[in-house]
Amino acid sequence: MPAGGFTTSTTGGDFEAKITPIVIISCIMAATGGLMFGYDVGISGGVTSMPSFLEEFFPVVYKKVHEPGLIESNYCKYDNKGLQLFTSSLYLAALTATMFASVSTRRLGRRITMLIAGVFFIVGTILNAAATNLAMLIVGRLSLGCGVGFANQAVPVFISEIAPTRIRGALNILFQLNVTIGILFANIINYFTAQIKGGWGWRLSLALAGVPALLLTVGALLVVDTPNSLIERGLLDEGKKVLKKIRGIDNVEPEFDELVMASEVAKEVKHPFRNLLMRKNRPPLVIAILLQVFQQFTGINAIMFYAPVLFNTLGFAGDASLYSAVITGAVNVLSTVVSISLVDRLGRRILLLEAGVQMLVSQLVIAVVLGLKLKDTTTSLDKSLAILVVIMVCTFVSSFAWSWGPLGWLIPSETFPLETRSAGQSVTVFVNMLFTFIIAQAFLSMLCAMKYAIFLFFSAWVLVMTLFTMFLLPETKGIPIEEMTDRVWKQHWFWKRFMED
């Protein structure tokens, strides 16, 4: 092994590359965008279960929760459109911002786009922490959403382009790992801020989002842009210089020549979004869109957004619900680490298929327990059944965290050709945020209307996505990004019909 790291051989289309410190540091810094995203996802559920927050901004919900006689069903405690809008407004802004982020990523580069995301995050954090009315609260969430749109557009592409092929999957999942760490930190912080006397703990929870926001902003100032981005913008000499720096070798000509060739092809494409609709680009586009739809219809965000609220609905006391959310957050982090260790060894498909079975079983058990034991007027589950529900939720979360969570972002970021990569990633983020918004806006109402059957609804989707993976999702492990067409799409039994010589 050469000094400075491992080497990837040039056989089979892979290019020589050491795993250099600058690659690891750059990817870690870039992945802090995931930390911010995760913190925003996790913090809202805990904050909306705090009595002082509800009393100040959602007094109708506060009365329903603390005066049970006002509601007919135990499942409907938190059914409120305004409360759902507080959570979902972030994703509404994100799906709009991602279209602008696509242009920014292509014309200004991946690094500048991450910097813009950091600024949006800082502004949103200040507005939320200082909010004195619902409008200010929503505007702050909209600013955070713009940050999510820009960060989720730039970070996965940045990591996929800068990472050596042999560890691209593991490094890319750093983004998702940071998402899970952000959710865990948010749940832990909510647990402690809920204990603060005086009712201002929710402000501290929202203000501490400034920490990952600053990390992302500073990280974006320190990292170098990717060679792909520099070459795409005509900065060939700088692109080669950065390529030598990140690969840790002088002989980068084979990879550099391929990047230049891909860039020349990309420059011929004047309308990348229109180009996405071409027949040859349909396989990565269709897969990217379906992965985002399926990811949200696993039901994961219904659980992660509203974990404390959900556990409250199931009859857990306030502290117990936050504590249970911390447990699921910890499982989320540990399981994502499992994905990092296995994704480049076992591949993408096997993780998705195994997780499909695990998610299906755990959701069916939850539905049966709630259907038989949690009635409309029941105030709580038996202790043993409540523990079983938490275990099943953790089982579900763990399987998602090593499969559909990280791979839903990884696979689209590594399958689009350079000429449509920014546009493809933009569509990926747009669809993800659109369906995240739909689930966030609808979940509490669905829980009220469907009761335990909501878990049967998500189970049906898990079955569909597992069958999709089995028959239509190709393996992309160890394939250089610029060789996906020849080595993946042209070899697949179904997608090869869309390829042209």
TrEMBL record:
Coiled-coil annotated spans: none
Membrane topology, record value: Multi-pass membrane protein
Highest classification ranks of the organism: Eukaryota, Viridiplantae, Streptophyta, Embryophyta, Tracheophyta
One Gene Ontology term, aspect cellular component: membrane
InterPro entries in the record: MFS_dom (IPR020846), MFS_STP/MST-like_plant (IPR044778), MFS_sugar_transport-like (IPR005828), MFS_trans_sf (IPR036259), STP/PLT_plant (IPR045262), Sugar/inositol_transpt (IPR003663)
PANTHER family: MAJOR FACILITATOR SUPERFAMILY (MFS) PROFILE DOMAIN-CONTAINING PROTEIN, SOLUTE CARRIER FAMILY 2, FACILITATED GLUCOSE TRANSPORTER
Predominant cellular place of this UniProt entry's protein: membrane
Major facilitator superfamily (MFS) profile domain mapped to chain residues: 26-477
Name listed for the protein in its UniProt record: Sugar transport protein
Keyword Hydrolase found: no
Keywords: Membrane, Sugar transport, Symport, Transmembrane, Transmembrane helix, Transport
Keyword hit for Transmembrane: yes
Single GO molecular function: monosaccharide transmembrane transporter activity
Parts of the chain that traverse the membrane: 19-39, 82-100, 112-131, 137-159, 171-192, 204-224, 285-309, 321-343, 350-372, 384-405, 426-446, 452-473
Pfam family of the protein (one): Sugar_tr
Localization annotation: Membrane
Similarity field: Belongs to the major facilitator superfamily. Sugar transporter (TC 2.A.1.1) family.
UniProt organism field: Quillaja saponaria (Soap bark tree)
